[in-house]
User: What shape does this take?
Amino acid sequence: MKFDDRAIEKVFQQGKPTLFLFSDEAEASRQAEKAFAEVAHLKKGKLLFSTSKANDGSGHFQKLADYLGVNTQKLPAMMLINAGDEMAKYKYTDDISADNIAKFVDDFGKKKNLRNILNLMTSLHLNLMQFK
Assistant: This one.
């Protein structure tokens, strides 16, 4: 999904976890886009996948990069965010390949599930403390 006004609503207003690919016209970016699209197809429903290009005409590229702390001088680059109650950012640091991106998405899913379990346990503990 191209990062545009519609994507802004899904990502930030609805709080959907999103993996962003920032790219330009270089060959490395084209290869990253192919790998990103492959994983987006395979992992559809796990999180949102959004692309932002310097020349896409939306005017959001630099604003988004600045907001997320992405260095646009080193493209392609990826950042995963979870824009729920607390904005969590996960910087992608591996070589960009379909296998590495898929592993990154899977690892995020595990962390997210673990965080949900820990939050539930904390809530249960706090609730039990009220009855003491």
